[in-house]
Backbone:
């Protein structure tokens, strides 16, 4: 059978490999559709490690069960169901967790051997290409359920890629007001379509200043979905005191907590618990993923698909790979072509804008480095006394005597076990 195999950075190939033999706990699924995630791109560009050479990649896809013919979405997280975290209802933090497409062979292959508990039936009114974009929906549900914003809260989302755009949709479902930040107008147009109240192009205006103007005290909730250290480091300047920040795209950076009192920072992970709800939201038409699809390729044309996903000139949002199918030209792609002129004539960042950005991101306070890669899904609390607030305001380099408590988060989630 054919499979997409990781051979090293910029070296991902479609190869002939042996068809997998399912164990007693597994079934064989025939691949139908999948989508390229930002993580696949990080592996492709050599920015992230974690995939071994020779491994099949892909962790967001659907197919058809060979034994029953049922259409199924595939959940990449494999968990034991009996360790401390599994019993806490946190299977995504399982102590013997493996993720297909990262630490085990993934989904971009003609056939996949997968445990039956990792399959979720696809409702009849959900298409295969829609069921191929479930991971970011599940991630957005997980993140916003964890953050628990209140009705009409301001939710600021940095990065309007597929994850950011789905965060915006779920935040709107929860009755929040959304501020969308990105560097590309074609993505911000989508944010507007999905109901963002304010769209900020960070090339044209200072997002920190603008968010403060709109929200007065800072945003109630901030979600970092751009995946850069710079945007991670921007989050304390966007959130209000006692607000909440989710770091989704990148988990490293220097967080200057001198600017914000009693804030909560959360590094989120995908959870299998949220897949059935993700499919239900698609089925009810409450969340849209079809409008995110900008390009479609055959699985055998994977190299071209990932090059397109990596090429900003192609204006990619979600690149989908399909099998044995006529590849239709995306209506959205045609639509955005007309916007090329607007994009090209967008004002270049001026010197003043740059200076403003630098002032807001550079700081004289003592910085605390939080490497959230070592702890998954953790709350970081930070408290300061009243006089320390004053020292923060006069902006002098002094020790604000910050206390940081790192505690394991344990949100209440019903333990998920399918028959
Ligand atoms: Zn992913
Ligand atoms: Zn476990």
Residues:
């Amino acid at each position: 059978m054919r499979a997409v195999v990781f051979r090293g950075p910029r070296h991902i190939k479609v190869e002939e490999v042996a068809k997998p033999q399912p164990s007693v706990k597994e079934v064989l699924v025939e691949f139908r559709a999948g989508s390229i995630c930002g993580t696949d791109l990080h592996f492709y560009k050599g920015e992230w490690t974690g995939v071994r050479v020779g491994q099949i990649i892909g962790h967001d896809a659907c197919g058809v069960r060979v034994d029953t013919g049922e259409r199924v979405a595939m959940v990449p997280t494999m968990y034991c169901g009996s360790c401390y975290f599994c019993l806490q209802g946190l299977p995504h933090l399982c102590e013997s967790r493996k993720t297909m497409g990262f630490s085990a062979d993934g989904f971009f292959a003609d056939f996949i051997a997968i445990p039956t508990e990792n399959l979720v039936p696809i409702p009849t009114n959900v298409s295969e290409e829609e069921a191929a974009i479930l991971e970011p929906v599940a991630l957005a549900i997980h993140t916003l359920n964890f953050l628990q914003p209140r009705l009409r809260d301001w939710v600021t989302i940095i990065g309007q890629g597929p994850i950011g755009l789905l965060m915006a949709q779920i935040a709107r479902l929860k009755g929040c007001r959304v501020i969308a930040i990105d560097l590309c107008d074609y993505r911000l147009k989508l944010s507007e379509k999905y109901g963002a109240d304010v769209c900020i192009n960070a090339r044209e205006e200072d997002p920190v200043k603008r968010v403060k103007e709109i929200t007065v005290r800072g945003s109630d909730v901030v979600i970092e979905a751009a995946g850069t250290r710079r945007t991670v480091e921007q989050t304390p300047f966007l959130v209000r005191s006692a607000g909440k920040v989710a770091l989704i795209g990148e988990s490293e950076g220097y967080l200057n907590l001198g600017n914000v009192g009693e804030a909560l920072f959360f590094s989120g992970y995908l959870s299998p618990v949220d897949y059935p709800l993700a499919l239900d939201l698609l089925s009810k038409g409450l969340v849209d993923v079809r409008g995110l699809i900008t390009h479609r390729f055959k699985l055998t044309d994977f190299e071209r698909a990932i090059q397109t996903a990596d090429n900003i000139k192609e204006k990619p949002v979600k690149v989908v790979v399909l099998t044995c199918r006529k590849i239709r030209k995306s209506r959205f792609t045609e639509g955005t072509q007309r916007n090329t002129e607007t994009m090209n004539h967008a004002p270049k960042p001026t010197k003043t804008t740059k200076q403003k950005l630098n002032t807001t991101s550079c700081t004289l306070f003592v910085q605390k480095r939080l490497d959230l890669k070592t702890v998954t899904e953790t709350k970081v609390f930070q408290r300061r006394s009243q006089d320390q607030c004053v020292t923060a305001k006069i902006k002098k380099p002094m020790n604000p005597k910050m206390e940081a408590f790192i505690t394991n988060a344990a949100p209440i989630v019903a333990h998920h076990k399918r028959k």
User: Anything to note?
Assistant: The mean pLDDT is 80. Residues 37, 39, 59-60, 135 surround zinc ion (ligand 1) (CB under 6 Å). The two ends are 30 Å apart (CA to CA).
